[in-house]
Amino acid sequence: MFPTPRPLRVMYQDEARFGRISDTRYCWAKKPTRPEVKGMLIYQYTYAYAAVSPQDRRMDSLVLPEVSGRCMQVFLDEVAQRYRDENIVMMVDGAGWHKSHDLKLPENLRLLFLPPYSPELNPQEHLWDEVTLENNSHTQIKHVNHG
Question: Is 82 helix (H, G, I), strand (E, B) or coil?
């Protein structure tokens, strides 16, 4: 499978979209009216590519402008470089950019596809739950460590 024998690292990869989108909200007004207004009128997104390694709980991520074969290539190259002394088996879902014929896998990295419709098999999916606005919109940050 790998041309050079090295320690094996198993990683689970996924992407998440973050950004702003229009949203209808109620606003303050005199009774009895309850007008609805647009919250934000801008569609701006950025995408976080990440892979987690359950064996040592390391996570590697990059923020990239889109989901595409080109950005996936950037991410794969970066992860392969970070772990150049290891062989990596990266579990991915069936997204089109994961199967792009333009992908050139680094020598120390191989992709293994998870079954369709099985996000529960990918630990990286659950890590997104910890950072999404929907789950943290009413969270008060007690302190920030800048160390």
Answer: helix
Average pLDDT over residues 96-114: 94
CA angle 121, 14, 39 (to 5 degrees): 115
Q: Which two tokens stand for residue 144?
A: 């920030």
Per-residue pLDDT of 29-73, as tens digits, reads 788 887 776 665 566 788 999 999 999 999 999 999 999 999 999
Q: How far apart are CA 16 and CA 124, in angstroms?
A: 10
- Give the dihedral of Cα atoms 114, 119, 122, 128; nearest 10 deg: 140
pLDDT range class, residue 144, cuts 50, 70, 90: very low
Closest CA to 78 of 110, 106, 113: 106
| Measured distance CA(125)–CA(37) in Å, rounded | 32
What does each C-alpha distance from 122 to 11, 78, 145 come to in angstroms? 9, 21, 29
Question: What is the rounded distance in angstroms from the CA atom of residue 77 to the CA atom of residue 57?
Answer: 20
pLDDT value of position 89? 98
Please count the other Cβ atoms lying within 10 Å of the Cβ belonging to residue 124.
24
